[in-house]
Amino acid sequence: MAVFLILLVGCFSGMVTGLTGASGVMVVVPLILILFKFPIHEAIGTSLVVDVLTSLVISVTYFKNNNIALKSAGLVALSSIGMAQIGARFSDKIPERGLDSGFSFVLIVLALIIWQTGIQRDKTPVAPFNLSDHRSPLWRILLSILLAGGSGFMTGFIGAGGGTNILLILLFVNRFPMHNALGTSILIMSFTALSGVIGHASLGNVNLMTGIVLAVSAIPTGIYCARFASKISERSLSRLMGGVYLILGVVMIIVNLRNS
What's the pTM? Predict the structure, then answer.
């Protein structure tokens, strides 16, 4: 029964990552806390293992559909990966209740931002992203690096938001189209999560076997959903992502209220 539940959690995690680019942490952490009574720090470290494996495989689907632009987001990736290692070192110092209550708020805010992005782009479409154009102003480059560093730190610190924060940076600062931003953020998330895993493992907060089982079940649904997301319109993708984040946020609020 326990193995079946782990596989079910993994399938849902892959679906969310494939469709929205959200870290599997958003799904895995609350569910294994409830179902398997993991300590919060071990739940975060284990969920990052899922992010590493699942995101890396899912990103292949986006690459095949020409929706990854890592070369243009290289500095974002390096900043995020480096700060994830630092964030993981601080994770053990935050109380469990503080970690629990932060998830729901982050999810609902992200849902509103993503939904609003879709509305804005219905009115004013974003110009197609051109890989050969590197004439970005210096402030945009520096802001990308700074925000990505903060995102990486939070990924290592509480596990959450790595892919989503990078997604928002690529959307609003680097001005990537939605599909390019989604595919690129998922690939960056896999490397950022790996950095976080290394940090958490050094603190004894990773259940490697559970993480691998979760990832094995997450990968097939993640690939399927990534193929679907690569083909739908920017408007539909924005609506879909916002809806999933909102549902997860509401679920987390209910869970927190029941446990308080």
Answer: 0.71
